[in-house]
Specification:
Length: 746
């Protein structure tokens, strides 16, 4: 079994603002009961899963096309035995690359990729424990030998060449991507010497391919961002191919056209043409799911095959895409879903629901992630909804749920939830408490995350209320509450913590308590050396401006300087746990300090709060989609955007710790703070007992950590002015009270 190793580095970074004009972001959210005017048109691409022929223990290597035009799949058993599967007339034909047996007796070589040349030769790329690439070749499929390519043995500063791809041109020459050097190396089939080096875009992942072979033997090389240059086998440069490179993609050719598959969908491109054509929208197929990474694509005469890898499931998926002349070009019904931010689980449901209901098109519209939303934008949305328009289904994260419920915008989902929980076991406190008003339920979260706190017991007790925190700081004016912390974290976490004390049920601001909060935030920021973060903030990179990212990632529970607790055990820190992998670094720190996590006031952070527009003309279809969101298929999807509310799916996350993905995943965190010891943390997957304890913690959560994004932005804006000394505490509190009153009156 090949082992993977992944690292990430967590540094003190600034939040880059991506400010856009929000005009028109709510367009298209009109009533949608009538089918589109073009719904009578026929013909579109449809997706079908092809059962993989591999057996337990086999790892899929890659997908190519045979000389006859059939898809060919290669797999490897135990890193040494390679199999070939050719798909023809709906059946798989298996053979074994026996010529590889015994070829590498002296050292272990882990096979990574197999290619076949136009004359039928097979070439296998592998790597050994020293990261030295090996290329083996067989001309007859019976005997073979390693190619003695000098370039592969040249050691540089980064070690041996980082060859991540192998392609063969029409003359049999070998084209290899040296990822470390950002260059494409062409090796002569005759002399095995380097005949050409071509600069490529910089690769940040082994999954990013930079070279493809065309049907006619030409080569396409990713020489610049968004551009592939076509070369013939004589290395003559031909034309340029414009490619949209948003996210990982795979490409193939058919005739004079090139095709790509990515989260955008299946796209057709022509060399020299700046315009591309989307043949299949990504939201209609597996490529649109964040669980699927395309790792291979082939084109038949009238169809496409795409191979996907599913990392967390340690599985693979093969899909065939064919043009169905009888399928409606535009599905008869359109269901519209709107949210302020993107949501992986909802996107997963959009794809699955459309596959189950071919007559339905689900349009999921969002403002997007990391974009700023103004009060005017919210007013525009409110006008739409109060006017009886808007999307059929709403993601209520950050929206004024109470106000919508009072004004009749949201449908009462109490009966729906009762029926749902009567069919399976859910976390009923999470479902029932998130968007409840006057005993009725108006929204239910698809996922949730868990804020945890760990550190000094005395400080944790001091944080229990505004009063106790004030008393503690009066007695201990130099007390370090959060170790090293950024002002935005202090500002946001404390407001969430004491929101119920400051903001009454009538949403009236207690100005005295708000002023006290600002006073405490100032003291804590000084003691937490918040100024060390200031040098990362300038102009549009300023931290703490109330962006969408801050609102919906609920960053108030994640201290960017959290690792500093290792240097400051007298303090506490918090972390928002949205997946098992999120546990890795904080739990490694807790183990080192012999600490245990606790909930923060039994808070949970709901994600994807689903509400139904009371004015929708498609109530039954909307409820069917919402029900699908809470099915085992969607709740059990291995996404990292939160924990499932379906109890059986929540219990199943225990199995993650035993997966190959978990065993091979190592993450690192590095924090460098002026005047403090350099902090490095390396962590693997959490222990089973830690996962079990977290699941038990999830079952005890009762209080939703939610915000009205307009009030949230008002608070952040005034808090920033106060924390930097532009206005005093009383003035800031008074400004917030006035602005909130005005907002609520509207």
């Amino acid at each position: 079994m090949r082992k993977g190793h992944r690292n990430y580095v967590r540094q003190i970074t600034a939040l880059m603002l991506c400010v856009i004009t929000a005009a028109g972001i709510f367009c298209g959210c009109q009533k949608s009961g009538a089918p589109d005017s073009e719904s009578g048109a026929k013909g579109r691409y449809v997706e079908k899963d092809i059962e993989l022929p591999t057996e337990k223990g086999e790892e899929v290597l890659n997908l190519i096309k045979s000389k006859e035009g059939n898809p060919v799949l290669f797999s490897c058993l135990d890193g040494t035995k390679v199999f070939r599967y050719e798909y023809k007339d709906g059946e798989w034909k298996k053979s074994s690359l026996d010529w590889l047996d015994g070829l590498y007796k002296e050292k272990d070589v882990y096979f990574m990729e197999v290619q076949e040349s136009a004359d039928g030769a097979q070439l296998v790329r592998g790597t050994d424990d020293e990261a030295l690439t090996h290329i083996a070749r067989s001309g007859d499929g019976k005997t073979g030998a390693e190619l003695n390519i000098p370039y592969l043995k040249q050691k540089g500063e980064t070690g041996y060449p980082g060859v991540m791809e192998l392609q063969i041109d029409s003359d049999g020459n070998y084209w290899m991507n040296d990822m470390y050097q950002s260059r494409l190396v062409v090796i002569s089939a005759d002399s095995l010497d380097v005949t050409e080096e071509i600069n490529t875009v910089q690769c940040f992942s082994g999954e990013q391919r930079v070279v493809y072979t065309a049907e006619n033997g030409d080569m396409a090389v990713n020489t610049e961002e968004g551009r592939f240059t076509l070369y013939d086998s004589k290395l003559n440069e031909k034309e340029k191919l414009k490619v949209s490179q948003e996210g990982l993609l795979q490409m193939c050719s058919r005739g004079d056209n090139w095709y790509s598959v990515s989260e955008q969908g299946i796209v057709r491109m022509a060399p020299g043409n700046e315009v591309s054509e989307v043949l299949m929208d990504g939201s209609m197929g597996a490529m649109g799911s964040s669980t699927n990474t395309p790792i291979g694509m082939t084109a038949g005469e009238e169809d496409f095959y795409v191979l996907y890898r599913q990392d967390k499931a340690s599985a693979y998926r093969l899909c065939r895409y064919t043009y169905d002349e009888e399928a409606s070009a535009v599905p008869e019904h359109t269901l519209r879903v709107f949210g302020l931010s993107e949501n992986d689980t909802v996107q997963e449901a959009v794809i699955g629901f459309q596959k189950l209901h071919s007559d339905v098109k689900v349009e999921f519209q969002t403002v997007g992630s990391g974009e700023e939303l103004s009060a005017d934008d919210i007013r525009t949305l409110n006008t739409e909804l109060l006017g009886g328009n808007g999307a059929d289904i709403l993601l209520l994260d950050g929206l004024p749920v109470d106000s919508y419920a009072e004004k009749g915008v949201l449908a009462d989902m109490t009966k729906f939830v009762k029926e749902l929980t009567g069919q399976a076991d859910y976390l009923e406190e999470v479902l029932g408490n998130t968007a409840r008003k006057d005993g009725k339920i108006y929204g239910i979260p698809v996922k949730f995350s868990v804020p945890v706190i760990y550190g000094n017991e005395e400080v944790k007790k001091a944080l229990s209320s505004l009063e106790t925190l004030s008393e503690y700081l009066d007695k201990n004016p130099e007390a370090n509450i959060f170790g090293v912390a950024e002002r935005g974290y202090i500002r946001d976490f404390l407001f969430q913590l004491y929101q119920d004390e400051i903001l009454g049920t009538d949403k009236k601001i207690d100005k005295e308590k708000m002023a006290l909060l600002f006073e405490l935030e100032k003291k804590i920021a000084v003691n937490a050396r918040a100024e060390v973060f200031d040098k990362f903030a300038s102009g549009e990179m300023a931290i703490g401006t109330g962006t969408m990212n801050q609102i919906f990632s609920q960053s108030m529970f994640t201290n960017p300087g959290g690792e500093a607790i290792l240097n400051h055990p007298e303090s506490v820190t918090t972390e928002r746990i949205a997946s098992i992998s999120n546990m890795m670094v904080p739990y490694a720190i807790m183990r080192r300090l012999k600490l245990s996590p606790e909930t923060v006031k039994d808070f949970y952070v709901p994600k994807g709060i689903i509400g139904i527009n009371s004015n929708t003309e498609q109530r039954e279809l909307a409820e069917k989609f919402v029900k699908y969101l809470f099915s085992e298929e969607i709740q059990g999807a291995q996404l990292d955007d939160g924990f499932p509310v379906l109890l059986s799916s929540l219990e199943n996350i225990r199995a993650e710790a035993d997966s190959d993905y978990a065993k091979n995943l190592i993450v690192g965190s590095s924090l460098v703070i002026d005047g403090e010891e350099h902090l490095d943390v390396e962590a693997g997957y959490p222990e089973k007992k830690e996962i079990e304890d977290l699941i038990d913690m999830c079952k005890s959560l009762k209080t939703p950590a939610v915000q009205d994004c307009t009030i949230w932005n008002i608070y952040q804006t005034e808090a920033d002015e106060c924390l930097k000394g532009s206005i005093d505490e009383e003035t800031a509190a008074k400004n917030i009270a006035q602005k909130v009153d005005t907002y609520l009156a509207e």
